[in-house]
Amino acid sequence: MISQHDQKLAKLILEHSTELKKGENVMVQLIGLNGIDLMRALIGQIREAGAHPFVKIEDTEVQRMLIENGDEGFWKNQAKVDQLPLMKQMDVFIGIRASQNIYETSMASKEANKAYSEHFLRPVHFDERVNNTKWCIMRYPSPAFAMNAKLPTDKFTEFYYKACLVDYPQLAEAMKPLEKRLRATDEIHLKGEGTDIRFSVKGQNWIPCYGRHNIPDGELFSSPVLDSVNGHITYAPSVYQGKPFEFVKLIVEDGVVVDFDSSNNDALKDILDTDEGARRFGEFSFGLNPVIESPMYDILFDEKIYGSNHLTLGKDYEVAPNGNHSNIHWDLVCIGADVYLDGELIRKGRKFVADDLKGLNPENLV
């Protein structure tokens, strides 16, 4: 029997996130079998709405085998024959990430990851899905996910639905004063433990996120002026391409990473060497979800941590461009730095101190 939590989450995704319309084609992709109840809830409600679901269920072990053994020719063929023609016919894409092991692809080589990213992920997802469908991606709770969050499974499941089902209209309203300030800002300065970095966002577009593309959600993002980033920044734990990093530190000059340190420097160097854009930044964002407090090695949650920012290595988004092109997009998160806009302190640690922004503090949203 499908839980009421999953029925409510499916309703949110279809009515709020993707605004599903009768007759639309909807790809529902499930990676890992753990999220089958949410898929069932979605398929039932999609048909009730008179839309057309296209189901893709992918086993994480098979996906690992394909990524580890795939090369340029294989992924070009996969995109050309299967995924890209189908994606071009979709009006809506819903992705459920239900893997039990976030390190499944950790043994894939640099060359294998590059082939997958450049010849499959970029054309199918970055270029087609992101730009031409109404899309939404979410994780699904599991004991393994709870372990990464350092919580008992029942407590984590309770937290998961609370974080996913926040009051998004209230959050959207609370973001408006910050968006107004940012649109008038030239320089942003982050200063905290292990972090002292400045960059310009003058003239850049800002996008408020309140449950349209990610569940859970809660961020306000743009991109830095490409060559303006200078200083050093320290990030919280992260996982990218299946490889764990307990910390990442970057030194940046004129928008380019010139030195680095991490708990996994060989893997970090491989990522930074992916292409020229991998050492530059394609996004900057404020994390604003009032429920998410600490990292759990899952970027869809960690990038929304309240009192955080992510300064993202790699590709920009077309809705907030800065001209950076790359086959990576790694949302590394910095938690608790003081934030200055054109010299004015607006957030001290994790709490906004400017009067017009205090509505974004968790006690005023939960």
Word description of this protein:
- By secondary structure, the protein is α+β, with helices and mostly antiparallel strands.
- The chain has 2 domains: 4-140, Thermophilic metalloprotease-like, CATH 3.40.1830; 168-364, no CATH class.
- It has helices spanning 4-17, 36-48, 60-69, 72-87, 110-132, 143-148, 153-164, 168-183, 265-272, 299-302; strands at 25-31, 52-58, 92-97, 134-139, 187-192, 195-200, 207-209, 214-215, 219-222, 230-235, 238-240, 243-245, 248-253, 256-262, 281-287, 308-314, 329-330, 333-335, 338-341, 344-348, 351-352.
- It has an 8-stranded antiparallel sheet, with helices on one face. Strands 7, 9, 15, 16, 17 and 18 form a 6-stranded antiparallel sheet that branches. A 5-stranded parallel sheet has the order 2-1-3-4-8, with helices on both faces.
- Strand 13 and strand 14 (256-262) form a beta hairpin.
- Helix 1 (4-17) crosses helix 2 (36-48) and helix 4 packs parallel to helix 5 (110-132).
- The model has no long low-confidence stretch (mean pLDDT 96).
